[in-house]
Amino acid sequence: MNAKRAQYTLLLLLILISAIVLLSNQVSVSKQILSVSAFATQIPASATLPAPNPGSPTPYTYNTPTPLFDLPAPDFVEASAKIAGTATRATQLTAVPTWPPNVQRPHPTLAPSTPYLPIATSVAGQGVIINSGFGDLPGGLGIFTDEWQMELGSQIIRVYAGSEAEPSRMDQGLLVVQVENRDNNSRSTPELYRTSGRDGAVEIVGATGVVLSLRSDNGTVSYFDVANRLWIPTIPVP
Questions:
Q1: Which tens digits make up the pLDDT trace of 9-38?
Q2: Strand runs (DSSP E) across 153-229, as ranges?
Q3: Cα(26)–Cα(14) distance, integer angstroms
């Protein structure tokens, strides 16, 4: 029994000695100086450094690292400098006009020009046809092709022509009349007037006084009296 215990103790002692030797080898390897050149030539560890010069601000010489990317070509740098210099000189030489006190500044006179209207319009009767279906009406009221409007005092009477918006009734012609009051900036409730037949959307093609001439998609012509809010068979003869 004592012999086995002695063998076991001897084995543990050998393992401990081996671990100590291995650890000491690793420490000695980590203390060695690596000779890896990152950007420039590394000075060997055995080289003797020059003695520092008390009168020199930089007692040691350092190697400049090599750039990772190429520097711009000299002609490119020179051309960029010339462009920057030209722009700077042009800004410095720009004259700023000044005026003496109490003297009115002269302003350029623009030549008269014709007003530009992005939407085509045409005079029709006592109003104007606007070839656009865009207005301030709710989208659910209908799909509109054009508009006729007339100014009457402080009011603006607008008539929108088109069809109903529901897909199953888009062949039903429709007029919507709305009056705007400019005195109080208000608008009346839209008034809906449907054509007698489902001949498609209607379009305002002309006007006589306040009687509108409309044409449906299938060519049917109808007339609407804006003053009386009535569909009439023909244009009344004055």
A1: 777 777 777 777 777 666 554 555 444 444
A2: 155-163, 173-181, 186-187, 191-194, 202-208, 211-216, 221-225
A3: 19
